[in-house]
Write a structure and sequence with these properties.
The chain is α+β, with helices and mostly antiparallel strands. 17% of the residues lie in helices and 33% in strands.
């Protein structure tokens, strides 16, 4: 720490924003670390007014990065979801959005040497043990965040970040289909429970009397709907082997619908009961995976087009995902790839409240 503060950087990764810190700059004891993070982010407080959190889940995130002791990886990345109005810090999920900025942070902190034009960083996602390879521009051996790639949900453009994700199958539950089935009947609804980087309960929006294209604010205002979503995910979480998930951020619930804007599938996601303004990267990967599985609730809604990446429509636009699956019983995921962008927002010292 520096004069009571902690060296840190705030970066946007994909459609999320988070505080990036080196593990060496945090207390080794998890309880002490979590207490510090709550005070840095300004939680618990709906406005997070006395911290650097952004008062919504997608901006109340922390990435803890360290050199990896595994020769197959360059760095370790621990994602922590910090509660906004609750004093919670959870490591029960990955974040594929913040993942898009981990490699650049690691280069900036001297954990990985930059290449003369581009750099590939092998990242171990500590939450699940999965691997991601992040590829990004480093002209002249320096990270360059500028570029012409646009992603939905983020204004302007930035340099593209290619994320190849390996070993994401069963990231939290231990199985691609954690219930052992492609489809289940839960709380009176047909669902597909899938885990390819993120445990997700996929349900047809029409089965809830929705189009699947409603604005997030409209969904949030429907107390009956959010209560139904919560009940569904609690029951599904138990079936997925996650135990009592009432206070957990996973599983997520995603409503799927036919696409409307030229994409492959329409989505509305709850995190866990608050409508997402877009969709998480790994959540989108899991939804596309479900759509590719014959017999799932998403299969007949997925427009596969002519091959190649599939655009997942969400409230802010769309996210392109490419998933390669080997058929079988059970099916196996060979590879998942997404394109994201990232940007450095500040680099300095962050101070916790007393």
């Amino acid at each position: 720490m520096t004069s009571g503060g902690v060296p840190a950087a705030l970066l946007r990764g994909g459609t999320s924003k988070g505080l990036f810190l080196l593990a060496a700059d945090l207390p080794a004891d998890p309880a002490e670390r979590d207490d510090l993070l709550l005070r840095l982010m300004g939680s618990p407080d709906p406005a997070q007014i006395d911290g650097v959190g952004g008062a919504v889940p997608v901006t109340s995130k922390v990435a803890v990065v360290a050199p990896s002791d595994d020769p197959e990886h360059d760095v370790d990345y621990l994602f922590l979801q910090v509660g906004v109005d609750a004093a919670t810090v959870s490591d029960r999920q990955n974040c594929g959005n913040l993942l898009a900025a981990v490699g650049q942070f690691a280069v900036g902190r001297g954990l990985v040497a930059a290449g003369p034009e581009r750099t590939a960083v092998r990242i171990r996602m500590v939450n699940s043990g999965a691997t991601a390879v992040s590829r990004f521009a480093t002209p002249g051996g320096r990270v360059d965040f500028t570029g012409t790639t646009a992603i939905a949900g983020v204004p302007g453009t930035a340099a593209p970040v290619l994320l190849d994700m390996l070993g994401t199958e069963g990231s939290t539950t231990g199985a691609l289909l954690p219930t052992g089935r492609v489809a289940d009947r839960v709380d009176g609804l047909d669902v597909t429970c899938v885990d390819n980087g993120m445990p997700v309960v996929v349900v047809r929006a029409a089965d809830l009397g929705l189009t699947g294209h409603e604005p997030p604010a409209e969904l949030a205002a429907d107390a009956g709907l959010t209560a139904r979503v919560d009940a569904l995910r609690i029951r599904a979480g138990a079936l997925m082997g996650l135990g009592d998930v009432r206070d957990a951020p996973v599983p997520k619930t995603t409503l799927v619908a036919p696409p409307r804007t030229g994409g492959a599938i329409g989505t509305r996601t709850f995190i866990p009961v608050r409508p997402h303004p877009a969709i998480g990267v790994l959540g989108a990967v899991s939804v596309v995976t479900a759509g590719l599985l014959d017999g799932s609730v998403a299969h007949d809604l997925l427009d596969r087009g002519t091959g190649g990446p599939l655009a997942v429509e969400h409230p802010s636009g769309s996210l392109e995902v490419d998933v390669e699956i080997a058929p079988g019983d059970p099916p196996r995921v060979l590879r998942s790839t997404v394109v994201r962008t990232a940007r450095m927002l500040f680099d300095g010292v962050v101070f916790p409240r007393a």
